[in-house]
Amino acid sequence: MHLRLISWFFIILNFMEYIGSQNASRGRRQRRMHPNVSQGCQGGCATCSDYNGCLSCKPRLFFVLERIGMKQIGVCLSSCPSGYYGTRYPDINKCTKCKADCDTCFNKNFCTKCKSGFYLHLGKCLDNCPEGLEANNHTMECVSIVHCEASEWSPWSPCMKKGKTCGFKRGTETRVREITQHPSAKGNLCPPTSETRKCTVQRKKCQKGERGKKGRERKRKKPNKEESKDAVPDNKGLEPSRETPEPRENKDKQQQKKRKVQDKQQKSSVDLFWGLKSS
Length: 279
Description:
The protein is an alpha+beta fold. It has helices spanning 2-33, 213-243, 245-278; strands at residues 37-38, 45-49, 53-57, 62-68, 71-77, 84-88, 93-97, 102-107, 110-114, 119-121, 124-126, 133-136, 141-144, 149-150, 170-176, 179-181, 194-200. Residues 43-142 form the R-spondin Fu-CRD domain.
């Protein structure tokens, strides 16, 4: 019985010595690989180096290499920075850089945002959008072409002429519709939103208050025209009254001249008569 206990004791002792030697050799191996490994790592690092930064990260953190000049330093982050996507492996979680034309990505084959000058379409960054799509310069994406859409026509309006619905036989009627969807840059243009056609109705007399706006405006304008017409004859009537004295004076002068000539002729004839008689 005592011999069994002693043998078990030696077996356990030898096993513990073996485990200790294994741990010591593993530590020596790690020190050989990373001679500058630091035990007091910060910033989520599980192991680190004074020269290279983090060498491994704590669970659920992502390992990423940051370039500082010609040197790369390992960093442990809770999520990957812009331009990188994260991949989880059993032994390490890594951040991998997106493609050159990709600003942010979900994985190496699927971009979520493109760099300037590229348009996003189905996870890829393109120089030009494919046929049937157009570029949206605001979101920098390839989107579907939107065509204009309009509502149904409204009923035809009452037959009218010059703003009224009475006092005529032939007029026009109108119907309208609204634009429900405006087109995109490459979409079809919008159709007309109003239509007018001729109409014929039975003439009916306009009652008081039914005259259109144009009729009222004409009524207002008519007195002014009549006043202007009345004013014109007055001015014309005044002008001859001013001009009439001048022709009368001329006529009087002409008559006086004629009388003088006649008087001279009479005198000359009388003188001739008396001269002949005395001889």
